[in-house]
Write a structure and sequence with these properties.
The protein is of the alpha+beta class. It has 6 helices and 5 strands.
Length: 157
């Protein structure tokens, strides 16, 4: 019995460490863009606005906000917000699902690294949705599929 408890405890510790290491990589999807920074931003905005009722309510220039506070020497970073009103309504019409409003609108981070390569990062909304289950899982799964289609032709395969 002692060996069983020791084995169980050891297994839980190993599993916990594995989850701790793997979760950040699973929660964020990162893609290299085929284009330079400005072309990537404009291509994403255009692709979102042309795809099945998706909207880009606002694009935040994170780099400019930071430069405006006196910092310098930073590569370009923008957050493109995106919303699909039909999906938002499916979540926000249910009181128990409104808790996920903190993740609305969704955002795509477009950034340039110090080597000049441009990347797009997104929260893995499908995985996040699975954690909530039910309606949220269904809607976020659909949103994830749409975002994948939106990014086709913009990101490297």
């Amino acid at each position: 019995m002692k060996n069983f408890i020791l084995g169980l405890f050891s297994g839980l510790i190993i599993m916990g460490i594995t989850v701790w290491i793997m979760m950040p990589k699973m929660m964020i999807n990162e893609y290299e863009s085929k284009f330079d920074f400005n072309k990537t931003v404009s291509s994403v905005e255009k692709a979102v606005n042309e795809f099945d009722s998706w909207k880009t309510p606002k694009t935040f220039d994170i780099r400019q906000n930071i430069l405006d506070t006196g910092f310098d020497n930073m590569t370009q970073v923008k957050i493109i917000t995106l919303c699909q009103p039909n999906y938002a309504q499916k979540i926000l019409s249910n009181d128990k699902d409104k808790v996920v409003s903190t993740m609305m609108p969704l955002g795509l981070g477009v950034y340039e690294n110090n080597s000049g390569k441009v990347f797009i990062a997104e929260m893995n909304v499908s995985l996040m949705g699975m954690m909530f289950g039910g309606n949220v899982s269904d809607v976020m799964g659909d949103a994830s599929n749409d975002i994948g289609k939106i990014l086709e032709g913009i990101v490297e395969n």
